[in-house]
């Protein structure tokens, strides 16, 4: 049986060659088509000719099957051009190995052309020559960078984070930051005049809002792969300020999702946004709490922003009321929280410190460089460990964070290292329980370049009402 089949194929081939010779004199579209399999067979184990129901003798330009975004042939003529046969032509029609399937080796296992594996953030494909061909992206977690930071005397330590492993550096910058640099007009916004003399004002060596205002400073959240630090830092600073200002009568954790989904005018949701736009929204529309409008970290990219589920309407005297129930159906407290207009602080370190000590945490814009992602502990300063690498390994993007305090660390030589204590929005397993310390006084990563403070909009009536809520719950 097998013998007969083989001789049939042989016969067909003879016929095929005869046809081909005749046709070669006038070159046709098919012969001029670009070869399908130059980079190795994609989908080498797919069934095409088999699913078509067989192979065609000689040349038959209608003997095709859809293949990826084009077509492939199952006629015997395709073997002459090699280029346009379906992946299973050789195996199915001729019973031989395709001429350009290579085998690659990995951990003692054999792989064929077209098979892949992922090495950190790069996809490696077994090429036709039997060599692995890997993408060359810079990854967010580079083990040599971690090693170099930890070996060097940089004042901080680096670590691997499983939530970043396998992402490219570009993806880290695209999905984990998300604050647009303020426009020139905003950057030129007047700084408030502080009633202090930076030279003579005595400020403590160490200050932490968490210790001065226990129970009123909110813990760092996790933005996940959503580039919305603009919403996270704004909501966090407003939450702390309202809690401090109301002396703990209200301690709302304001909802970043409310901003991401509803503050959509000139804002990019999970693709980045502006802090001035976020403050405008907090002032004019207001937002509810995180528990009322919970964060839904995106499961895929590009991230979906989600429909806005919470509008507010004016109820007079500048106050607003929610027009919907909480998206979280277990929560009945859909109170709207608002702020007053934000104010810009000067870049003077002392003035920023005084503002934090008097009024609470501030919002700061900063440039995040490649090494910041692997920060684990210590006083961060951008290092030179990637300076000798290709430019693709050295990238940065704009982020925003919440500064909650400061301190100083004594060096062995008697000098000291000054730092800010700041909250990030990459979860509590990142850095020092979600916080980081960064060099203070040198505008490190531009962290002192654009600092914002704000007041919550709180009336005596608010204090009374919320106080009541509070009391009633405890009786
Ligand atoms: C098909 O093409 C390959 C590679 O060019 C060649 O080695 C093989 O002999 C051809 N097979 C037939 C049956 O023509
Ligand atoms: C980092 O962690 C991942 C798993 O979370 C692991 O697969 C990887 O080998 C680690 N990389 C380094 C450089 O330690």
Automatic annotation (TrEMBL):
One of its GO terms (cellular component) is extracellular region. One of its GO terms (molecular function) is peptidase inhibitor activity. SUPFAM superfamilies: Cysteine proteinases, PMP inhibitors. This is SMB domain-containing protein. Residues 323-340 have a biased composition (Polar residues). It is found in: Secreted. Keywords: Disulfide bond, Glycoprotein, Secreted, Signal. InterPro entries: Pacifastin_dom_sf, Papain-like_cys_pep_sf, Pept_asp_AS, Pept_his_AS, Peptidase_C1A, Peptidase_C1A_C, Somatomedin_B_dom. GO terms for biological process: proteolysis. It comes from Sphaeramia orbicularis. Residues 1-20 form the signal peptide. Residues 316-340 are annotated as: Disordered. Belongs to the peptidase C1 family. Residues 51-99 form the SMB domain. The keyword Signal applies.
